[in-house]
Each structure stands twice: as structure tokens, then as C-alpha cells.
Amino acid sequence: MTAATAKPLTAYRPHWAKRFGIAPFLPMSRAEMEALGWDQCDIILVTGDAYIDHPSFGMALVGRLLEAQGFRVGIISQPDWHSAEAFRALGKPTLFFGITAGNMDSMVNRYTADRKLRSDDAYTPNAEPNRRPDRAVVVYAQRAREAYPEANLVIGSIEASLRRIAHYDYWSDKVRRSVLPDSKADLLIFGNAERALVELAHRLAKGKNIEAIRDLRGTAFMVPRGWTPGPDWHEADSTTLDTPGAVHAHPDPYAMEESQQKVMRGGIPLRDGADGTATVRIVPRAERLAARKDARAHTVVRLPSYEQVSESPVLYAHASRVFHLESNPGNARALVQGHGARDVWLNAPPIPLTTEEMDHVYGLPYARAPHPAYGAAKIPAWEMIRFSVNIMRGCFGGCTFCSITEHEGRIIQSRSEASILHEIEQIRDKTPGFTGVVSDLGGPTANMYRLACKDKKIEENCRRLSCVYPGICENLNTDHAPLVSLYRKARALPGIKKILIGSGLRYDLAVKSPEYVRELVTHHVGGYLKIAPEHSEEGPLSKMMKPGMGAYERFKQMFDRFSKEAGKEQYLIPYFIAAHPGTTDVDMLELAQWLKRNGFRLDQVQTFLPTPLALATAMWHTEKNPLRKVTAASEAVPVVRAGRQRRLQKAFLRYHDPENWPLLREALKAMGRADLIGPGKRHLVPAWQPAGTGTGAAPGKLPVKQKSAPAIRRSPEPQAAKPARRGVPARKHPDVPRHPLSRRKGG
Predict the structure, then answer these.
(1) CATH number at residue 77
(2) For residue 473, is pLDDT > 70?
(3) Cβ contacts of residue 354 below 8 Å, gap of 6+?
(4) Distance between CA atoms of 147 and 136, rounded to whole angstroms?
(5) What is the pTM of this model?
(6) Residue 703, Cβ density class (10 Å: 0-12 exposed, 13-18 middle, ≥19 buried)
(7) Mean pLDDT score across all residues of the chain
(8) Domain region containing 153
(9) Which one of 49, 76, 209, 429 has the largest count of C-beta atoms within 10 Å of its C-beta?
(10) Cα(174)–Cα(280) distance, integer angstroms
(11) What is the number of domains present in the chain?
């Protein structure tokens, strides 16, 4: 199926319940249902977040979309999971429960990179912690099943997406099964769920059994071992497609007999001669390509089983590599992975939405406010997002620590100018407290709006993991003119005083358009611009798939020049990651020296957090590099696991903090770099230690001398959480990497 053949979201005949009209808020209680004239919900969405009726929050977006299709949609927000009673609040849905953890993965939401419980939750009223369980999708699904054993259960969101196959779980330090068998769900919808959800709801409304719905793209489900959708399907062993070195073959009871196999060329069976030899036939190119495409559409790639990847780091890294190579909707094949006596089957990824469909989804009648049940409570995620606009989704950067591509995909899906400008007017006219400043026009990355492959056929056949690494692809359109036009029209709207850009900037793309950089720096930077070089050294950068510092330096020159021309004093604030796979202590020392040379004293730093399915997580778990073919003898990736070494690498990023000096002095001596200890400008840390600092000192206490020392470019004070766009966790805490789909992913 291509984008041209995908059924538009607006092409469905509305369900009969359309007659009830639009709800001011999707109901969260029986009383609200009765006020709407409902006796039952068709679909009940369960979420670990507070319900905010705004398109930046997944449950509101999905709920309003299903409402527009004519379905009665209810919300169960942050239920008490200790019993099934809270899951009976709205009764049994006629169609299904939709279970999610919320905009963030529940484990990332609750724990730091050091596995410590967080003290607040940006998606909860008054930031109250502990309002959701660990692994919320599994817990909520089990409770919903307990409440109504016969109800259909559909799981989704970022948490389910990143756990759709066997995956390394950092918090338990082991490989866990797919979330499907643990949740006992009927169906898992991964990625952007609009197409699959709408089609599923209409099929179920027509009486289709959910166990018979096996052809929806973007869905996963459990099947008997060896199941296929039809006799024209065949299975390919992933180890024959990307051989992971010496692997003991496992007999396949479903393999064809040798006598049944056909000699193939380009997907076309060759005619056999009378003497048993194969006669070569010249196959026209069009026929050959069509046959290959048809063959891929009816091929399922078998990944090593859960049992195999849990025991073999090589097979785990291999499975991660194959999984990511099968992620382009234009050419991805179905995947299957054994879990005991059954299989987890994954259909191909969903077809991206068109601009018209994006406009439809973001133009639905959202109340653009938290549900009234929360009263005057402050919800930090809402406070940060209410004056910003999401203009696109997806990211083709392919950063290995970031899961945007695993969830939203690499193909950019952009809204139209008219749709975006209309939403800005809605904020201006309807959002209380608006002062004329739009806090962000962005998405996962600030400057990928309307960027795409120059040729649709090339895009559909591409299997690169990134469009911009190791260099920007020659087939990528890097024209920022549509974004410049949008900025100019947005700030020209009556009542709009300022448009800020808060999403992360992909600066290696930005330098391709000096006009864009001038526009950004002159009109849309509020003194500081945050970007993400992530590191200065080639070793870790090559494992992140990030550009070198040359691109940063070129962007900095443009930034400084255009700031000076605009008569503004503005600064770049860089983000860096410590303890990323491929990073040595020497790399961190080099980065610390780079920071000092450039006058940076970072307030916000982060330690790498391995999250499910990310390529960097595969490196962290296996110490293998899945960016290349994986073998037992392939490149070993250095990994920092010990707590002390992780603290040391983080301390290098804050070399200026006296609390870190004892640890840094000890490390520098051990590394043979005691020459960097002393009072001079060339030294990294002083030999003296202020009273009340260092080991055993009260945290946060700084010496008077340090307080008065000027910082050439000091970061602003840490800010509150910037919540995610749909399914995109915020970079709320300094040690939460951009990887779990933060909007500030770019750079």
C-alpha cells in the first residue's frame, strides 16, 4: 500500500452515534455521559496522564479523531491501578479499551538515569508523583481485562511502541518479552496510530471479530507459531539477510521441502529445462521491479526469538539492526519473532499522513484546556505547551539515542500554513493568559518542516538509517523557504508580538540556508538558543550518528554574525550527553577542555539513559555496533556501566562545580593528566578545595570566590518541563536524554 492508496481519514461514513454531536470535553464520569445522552461508550481510552484536551496530548488527539468518526469516546485518566474498580467507572465499551501509559514512557517518567524515583510528574495535577504504575501499559491492560474479561483490549502509545518486540529493559537489567504477551492485549498499535485506529473502530462497529483483523499496517498481535496471512506468503530468516557471524541453525518445521523450491531471479521463477537445468530468461526491468515489490509485500522476516536474543548479545544486536532496516513504510516487510510456542507478528509500519490529513487531525474541536475536574490545579506540561504549536511530526536524523524514528518514523509529515496560522489565532483568541508570545513553532525538530526526499520513488526504496549522517543525502530537499515564509506570516498576525522557537534545531541542515538562520536569529531567539551537539569527539559521535563539531562551528559563525547585525546579544546553549555508548573517559576529558576553551559552564547536563528499541540501547546492552553488520568478532563498543564512572563522565561536563573537583582530580591523576590540575587558565580544576564543598559537603553549596567568577556563556536556570508533542516525552529532567522522543531532539 502506498500513500496514494491509503484510505483518507475523512473518507469513512460516520458511525451512527455521530448524532450526539461534539462533547465540550470527552467524558471522564457517568454523570458527564448522561449529560451527553449516552448510555455507553463505544471506546474508552485509559491514560497515565491528566486529560488535557489539546492536540499535543495523545489521548485528546486520538479521542477527538474517533469522536469525529462518530464514536462515543470516554477517558479514564490516571486510574487507581490497585484494583479493577476504577476501570469500571464508565462501564464496558461497546468496541474496545484503548490502553496507553501517556505521552511519556512510564519508566522514563518515574525514574532518573540512575534508576532513582523522580519527585514530580509534569503530566499530573500539581506535579504530584506516583500517580501511575511502573510499566503502566501492562498494569492498566491487566486491570481492564479483570474489570471486563470479554472487552477488546488495544494497547498503544510510546510505551507500547518501544516494547513491541523483545527488548532490553534498563530498569530490570534484562531482556524482556514483547509487551503483547504480558499485557494479554488483543492488538498493539505502534507508531502514529490514526489510520489503524479509525479503520479498526469502523470494522469492529460492523461486527468484525478483533481476532480476525490481521491486515492493518502499524499493528502487532500474537499468533500460533508459523502462522501467515495466506498461502502466497513466505518467510525469510533474518540471519540469511544480514548474517550475524557463526550462528547455530535452528530447524524450521515450516520450511519447504527442497524439491518444492524454485530457482528465482529478481523474484521471477526461471523455466526449468528438460535436463533439470535452469534456463535463463531475460526479464524486463519493469516486470522485475514489480515482482520484487510484490515479493517484499508478501514476505515476513523472522527475527531471532525472544529466547535467543535474551541469551545472545550478538543476536540481540543483529535483531536490532534488522528491525531498524525494516522501518521505511515504502519497503518495510512484516516481522515475526518467536515467544515460546507463539509468535509476535508485526505488520509493516503505518503510511504517513498527508498534509490534508494532518490539518484535519489538528483542526478538530479541542477545548484547548485541562478537563474542568482538575479545577485550579497546575499541570506543568500544560503550562509549558499551551502557547506553542506543533507544525510537523517525524524525524529523519536517525540519532541512535532517540526513539522518534521508532515511533513517529523518518518521513516528515507537515501541516499546511493555513492550518498552523489558524491555530495561532485560536491561541490568541481563546487561551487564557496569552500575552502575544507564541512559545514555539516546531515539533521533534524545529527545522524539518516540509523537508523530504526529492524523488518519491527513491524515498520508498531507501533503507538508510539517516538522511543526514554521515553527510546530508544528495536526494534530500533542504530548502527552508517554506519555513521562513511560515515564520514571517505567523509574526505578522494581529496580536502576535513574538514567535519563539523552542524545539531543537538541526544546525547541520540550517547552515544550508543562511536566509533561514538570519530569520531565526533576527526574530525568533529570546536571548538563548539551545542546540544539541551532544559531544565533541568522533568516537561517541559516530555511535550517535551525529555531525562533527565542524557543522556546529559553521552555524555558530552564522549565529554570531546575524546576532551582531540585528544588534542583539544572544548565546548558543549546547546540550551534551555523558556515558553514551562509545564514550571513553578520555573523550569526556577532551569535551571538558572544549567547554572550558569556549567559556561554557553548563547548568543542565544529562547521562545516557538506555530506553527500549533504540540503537544506542542495543550498543549499551550488547557492546556491539548494530550500525554495521554484527558478528561475534565485530567492533566492540566501550560502555560505561559502573555508577562511579557514570558520575565521573557527568562531572567532566560540570568541571567548574567544586562538588566535582575531588572526583576529577583523582581521575586526572589516574589518567596521567595531573598537568590539568592547578590555578592557571590552562588547568581544568584547581588544586585547592573550598571549605564546605566536595565529598561529604552539603549539596549545592558554592564558595564565595566561585559565585563571583563570571561565566562567559552561562546557561539559563533550569526550566520546567517542556511537554511532548503527541507521544513525545519532554526533556523535563537534565538526565533524561532526547532519545525517548523529546521535542528538542534536533541539533
Answers:
(1) 3.40.50.2300
(2) yes
(3) 3, 8, 413
(4) 16
(5) 0.87
(6) middle
(7) 88
(8) 9-218
(9) 49
(10) 51
(11) 2
